[in-house]
Specification:
149 residues, alpha/beta, 6-stranded mixed sheet, 8 strands, globular
Length: 149
């Protein structure tokens, strides 16, 4: 992406500059995170994500959605499978589990498509039922970031 782009809208000339998003998050709603990622991916303005502090769960996915990705040296990342809860009749609970598995696959594929983490490693993380923590140096080894700032 160019560092900026000049364009006109309604007779006004704008100098488009990159958007920088600092990601420091425990994560949160998968649906809301996917909505943000959709906006980021369709943005014609370059988006720089800078991981800082804690970048966990959905926060990892958001950090990976940047066109340019960076992290501060003391950032802690965490990946795990989708967390969910359900109640109701058995059929409703089965549908909720099916949806949680679908979302898990969406996030799994997103990580694989936007990093160099191996499918074998990611599968091991997901099957372990544990939180997998790592630092910015490891994130760089996984090509999750271009540089540590």
């Amino acid at each position: 992406f160019p560092s900026h782009d000049i364009y006109a809208l309604d007779g006004h000339v704008y100098n488009r500059k990159p958007i920088t998003i600092y990601v420091n998050s425990h994560g949160g709603s998968v649906y809301d995170g996917l909505a943000l990622i959709g906006a980021m991916e369709t943005s014609t303005t370059p988006i720089i994500t800078i991981a800082n502090g804690k970048v966990m769960s959905m926060g990892v996915i958001i950090a990976l959605a940047g066109h340019i990705r960076k992290a501060t040296p003391y950032t802690t990342y965490m990946i795990h499978s989708v967390s969910s809860f359900t109640w109701g009749q058995v059929k409703q609970m089965e549908e909720d589990v099916k949806e949680a598995k679908r979302l898990n696959n969406v996030l799994f594929d997103f990580i694989l498509s936007n990093s160099a983490i191996s499918k074998k490693k990611l599968t091991k993380i997901y099957k372990s039922k544990q939180d997998y923590f790592f630092d910015a140096k490891t994130a760089k080894q996984y090509d999750m970031i271009e540089e540590i700032v």
